[in-house]
Amino acid sequence: MKNIKVIIVLVITASATLFAQFGSEGTTDARRMALGNTSNAISKGVFSIGINPANILNSDETVNFSTVLPFPNLSVKAGTNFISLNDFNYYFGGNNGQSKVLSQTDVQNLSSLMSGGGLIFGNVNIDIFSIGVKLAPSIGAFGLSVNDVVSSNLTLPSALSQIIVNGNPTNSTYNFNDANASVWWLRDYSLTYAREIPEIPQTVFSKIAAGITLKMVQGFAYVGTQQVNSSFSTGSQNQLTVDANNSFLSAFSDNFHVRYSYNINEPKQNAQMSPFPTPAGNGFGMDFGLSASIADVWNFAVSITDIGSINWTKNTAITNSTGQYTANDLLDKSQQDSLKNKFKGTSDSTGGFSTNLPTALRLGASYKFNFSEHSWPGTLLLAMDINKGFNDMPGNSTKTNVSLGAEWKPMDWIPYLRTGVSFGGLLGFHWGVGLGIDAGVLEFNLSTLDMQTLVSPNSGKYLSVALNSRWKF
Amino acid sequence: MRNLYFYLFVPLLIIASFFAGCLTIPSNPVIPQWDVDLNIPVVNRSYTLSDIIKKQNYISIQDSGLPSNIYLIQSNDYSVAKDVTSFVQALGSQSTNDNIVSGAGSKTLFVQFPGGVTITNAVFQSGTLTYSFTNPSATDNATVTLDIPGITINGQVLSKTIPVGASQTAAGSINFADAIYTLPQNQPAFFSNSLEIIVGAASNTPTVISLNLTTNDFFFKSATGLIPAKSLGVKSSSFSLNIKNASNFRDKIALKNANLTLDAVYIPAVNNNNPFPIEVHNLTITGIRNDGAPPLQLTIPDSAKTFIFSGANKHFDFDASNSNITSFISYLPDSISVSAEYIMNPNNANGTVAKGDSVKFTASFNTTSFLAISNSSTSDTTSFGNISDKDRTKIRASQSVNVSVNIQNSIPLNTTVRITILDSTYTPLFTLINNTTGADSFSVAPASVDGTGEVTAPGSTSLTILLDSTQTDKFSHAQYAVVTTGVQTPGSPTPVAVRPSDAIQIQVYGGVKFRINNDNLK
Predict the structure, then answer these.
(1) Is residue B522 predicted with pLDDT exceeding 70?
(2) A70 cis-preceded (ω within 30 degrees of 0)
(3) Closest to B37 (Cβ–Cβ): which among A167, A332, A444?
(4) In 3-state terms, what secondary structure has residue B418?
């Protein structure tokens, strides 16, 4: 497949920049990140879009919007779940610019870091513009958002750790079934509507609201494993056997000028990027959300986000490598080529395929403490989220993620102090921390999801920083 | 707003400073180096001899009548020719002295052909008839007329008038170049060995004129009749066999069968239905080596040493039953000399001969691939060709190499190989060691054979080669290899059958301790 460079660019870009709101593993804003990815019940205004559309009502102002000024809505998260920056420096930092020669112990340690495989992930979210308008309770609130997402998940097979140390011993078999890779670049144009529902007869909650977001989704690139079921064996006389049953789907915008094996004879052209590339796929998505509160102290929320799919129709291909091949004579050029082709596979035009959006269920609850002046200064907000994706599309995970967050406002002149922890999910434990400043018309938030990296940057496996601003009128 | 900016920028600055001070990100990440064992299959192939032996014009596959065919090694045709020019001539002279009375009519004389030939037809290339006429009359001149009815020149019967003055002698010669001779029909058979000449003379008064006629050195373009037996002399010719590297097998090879075919043929320059018989006398075929070894003569039956043939080809087949041909070919001469005396018309028969006629001998050898080789050895220097710098880097990256070789040999040849690696200046770097035996050579076991030399079971060989990092580093400088190969057939000197279908299966696999680093992953 000739689009490897494009994929690499996408993965690197996604790994180095922003984290998306798409999927159960996504973050929307700096406040959510500071609270350990907790905001289902407490998100506010335009920062509710993509989390729980009902919460767009949680704004004291009529109009709130977020744009690139004074600070862009920016959140950064990238990393791996197997190697820290210290380890990276140790192995890849070199010695005076020269490659580090690893001892046997070093190699064993490097292998053990990857013994369970390894996840390399990254996401990009660019909130180009979001605005929310809250009207009379009988009318409700409206929101509009334009959002770009680039997400990638790359799972290295656990067999890699054994290959690093042992190479390919005689009579060995390595299994690569746990390998996985997916990356996409999406843009959604979303319209949100939320309204309180006093018409529901009940006495438990003081307020119930419901919201819906409709999204028109454009896809500019997608590469994803459809199936990985392969092994690599070395026989008693070193014969190499590849048993493959792999398939990958891909689609690219015309702007990438990607060539597959089936159209390799077309003229080669460089990618021509623009702010508005030609979509390779189009889809439609919806978010539904409910929120309820009790006496402005308790808040409860439930939402299902990103219901829908994308139909990819431009420059689509399925790359397959199937069957078993044994090479016992590598001086035979045809065997070399057959072995390579078994790894690479061949691409065929599919005509089109569809992928689900990263549909996720989000549950949340929060309690707000209003302390008396002499018992505890300020206010304290505690919140808990449960997020679970229904698929493993980029930015999403079927592993349940539970998070707890706390936001304390000691007194007026002290910023919001926020912290939170997150368990489970794709990325495991995280400890977030952050600050929030509410200066009237402008709100500013700053956070990280990785307290360990903040305290000891080189020992962390993740890097995450988020900041944003929101205008309120 | 002043507080706002304080709140905004101070935390940012703190965090930025914190990360800038504590975060260590390598400016130029580089892949570390370590060794990893890579095991690969190198070769797994089966070669039949018909795959190995390239198609050559002197090797063919012969149906041996068995399930498997056999090779037939066929030499070129080696030819030697001897022209018969010296036979197509009659040298010497024959004279007749006589008298004739002028005015008394003509007189028929017969002057013998030189060389004792008797011819009925001939075309002269050259030759003369000299004459001398003496007129004793002191007063009368005379005229002598010569008519030679058997000779025509330019379509005219030869006739010549020669004046002889009083008391004079007239002498001269008549050139027969390009003349055609045909025995006159009325010439008596008794004088068929002579030239008929009709002489007449005229003068005013009868005078007795004395005459002398002499035939001298007739050279014919063609002649029919009886030319006496004549030896053309001993003719010796040699031809090179161009055996090249086969000379390495001298004194170490024995053949089970071989053939020499010899054809003698008379080649007329023009159509000839009645050529003269030819005796080939004391035919000798000798193999000659350039290394100074004593020549080896092919022993052939006496009937083949001296024989007479006429017209049709004379064909001989020499094999082990009537000659020492197997030893002769096993001798592997550089050249072969064929020598014989050629005697034309040994029994003085009638025939026809032309100047361009020749006698040609053609010899060719063949043998089948039933042979025995006893411990022969050859050495050759071969180049590795152009190994790229990139590949040499990867060779250097191999910290050690182990190679296992399994061979199933269905060819009845035991082969021993010794390989010495040389650099570009032909300086030896190291010699490959057989780690199975510790020897500096590798022996491939031959197939087993039965008493008739036929293969009964393949031979199995397993060996290993280990190269350490020093040797792999040296190998990265390799440019040439000296390959010394020893070959021996099992049970030598009993010949074995080497058949095109005989195969050798070679399986090579090995492990490399490969140095992973940035350069070697490119």
Answers:
(1) no
(2) yes
(3) A167
(4) strand
Smallest CA–CA distance, residue A392 to chain B, in Å, is: 31
Query: How many domains, chain A?
Result: 1
pTM for the structure as a whole: 0.67
Residues for chain A: how many in total? Answer: 473
Range of the domain at A236: 2-196+209-294+301-356+433-472
Considering only CB atoms, A99 lies closest to which of B31, B36, B42, namely: B31
How many beta-carbon contacts under 8 Å exist across A and B? 128
Residue A203 lies in a domain: no
Contact state of A328 with B41 under an 8 Å Cβ cutoff: yes
Secondary structure of residue B407 in the 3-state scheme: strand
pLDDT of residue A449: 86
Residue at A123 is within a domain: yes
**Distance from B520 to chain A by nearest Cα, in Å?**
12
pLDDT digits (tens, 9 = 90+) for A316-364: 999 988 888 998 888 788 888 888 888 778 888 888 999 999 999 999 9
Q: In this model, does residue A287 exceed pLDDT 90?
A: yes
Give the distance from residue B380's alpha carbon to the nearest chain A alpha carbon, in angstroms.
Answer: 24
DSSP A286-354: EEEEEEEEETTTEEEEEEEEEEEEEEE-SS-EEEEEEEEEEES-TTSHHHHHHHHHHHH-EEE--S-EE
| B326/B495 Cα distance (integer angstroms) | 11
Q: Measured between CB atoms, does B7 come within 8 Å of chain A?
A: yes
Smallest Cβ distance to A85: which of B18, B24, B41?
Answer: B24
Which of A 318-337 lie inside 8 A of B, CB atoms? 327-332
Residue B444 has what DSSP assignment?
Answer: E
Looking at residue B214, its pLDDT comes to 96
Calpha distance B307→B314 (Å, rounded)? 9
Whether A285 maps to a domain, the answer reads yes
CA–CA gap between residue A152 and residue A394 (Å, rounded): 5
Give me the interface pTM, i.e. the ipTM: 0.72
Q: How far apart are CA A468 and CA A436, in angstroms?
A: 10
Mean pLDDT of B373-388: 76
From CA B403, how far away is CA B38, in angstroms rounded? 12
Classify residue B239 as exposed, middle or buried by CB count within 10 Å of its CB (0-12, 13-18, 19+). Answer: middle
**Which residues in chain A (433-472) have CB-CB distances under 8 A to chain B?**
435, 437, 439, 442, 444, 446, 454, 456-458, 465, 467
CB contact under 8 A, B39 and A446: no
What does the DSSP 8-state code read for residue A95?
Answer: B
Per-residue model confidence as pLDDT tens digits over A119-155: 887 776 777 789 999 999 899 999 999 888 888 888 8
A385 found inside a domain: no
